[in-house]
Amino acid sequence: MATPVLIPVSEYLSTTYRPDRDYVDGELRERNVGEESHAEIQAILARMIGNRREDWHVRVLTEVRIQTSETHYRIPDVCLVPNSRPRGRIIRYAPLLCVEILSPEDRMSMMMEKIADYAQLGVTNIWVIDPELRVGYYASPGKLEAVVDNVMRVSETSIEISLAEVFAELDEG
């Protein structure tokens, strides 16, 4: 097993990666992206939420850097932040929602590590969506809870997204 090359956080923050990478304790972590279903679900969610952003008083962001601790930066597929929060290059506060869309290459151990980082920052709404199984999960450290009624909700808000609608749109193409 190769020893990862560690880089300083300043280098990570001043470098552009394509696609962008998570940063954990000096190590760059590749994200599994590029699958058509992954990209399409990301776009569908961003559009569905974006269409209601004024009603819900949120901004929808895709692939934005979130600093979850001093040496951890994560990049959720989709996240929501309240309109009232300041804009900046990097999110340094708990978003209202972080969404991860699974790719076939994703390892559950790595996904659970990301979920723990989001929760440590204070994110209370974390969704994981599996395009292959056509299911969504509410996530918290060490736990995935399947959505039972096919509607993903953000607690203590009126925000909800029908997975049936998401997957129907995915099938249209």
Number of domains: 1
β-sheet strand percentage: 25-35%
Distance between the termini: 41 Å
Tell me the number of strands: 12
Helical stretch count?
A: 5
Describe this structure in words.
By secondary structure, this protein is an alpha+beta fold. The chain has a single domain (33-172), classed as tt1808, chain A (Alpha-Beta Complex), CATH 3.90.1570. Helix content is 28%, strand content 28%. It has helices spanning 9-13, 36-51, 53-56, 108-121, 163-172; strands at residues 22-24, 27-29, 58-62, 66-69, 72-74, 78-82, 97-101, 126-130, 135-140, 143-146, 151-153, 160-162. The strands form three sheets. Strands 3-6-7-8-9-10 form a six-stranded mixed beta sheet. A four-stranded antiparallel beta sheet has the order 2-1-5-4, covered by helices on one side. Strand 8 (126-130) and strand 9 (135-140) form a beta hairpin. Helix 2 (36-51) crosses helix 5 (163-172). The longest helix is centred in the first third of the chain and has 16 residues, at 36-51. The N and C termini lie far apart (41 Å).
Detail the topology: elements first, then pairings.
Layout: H1 9-13, E1 22-24, E2 27-29, H2 36-51, H3 53-56, E3 58-62, E4 66-69, E5 72-74, E6 78-82, E7 97-101, H4 108-121, E8 126-130, E9 135-140, E10 143-146, E11 151-153, E12 160-162, H5 163-172
Parallel strand pairs: 7-8
Antiparallel strand pairs: 1-2, 1-5, 3-6, 4-5, 6-7, 8-9, 9-10, 11-12
Helix pairs in contact: 2-5
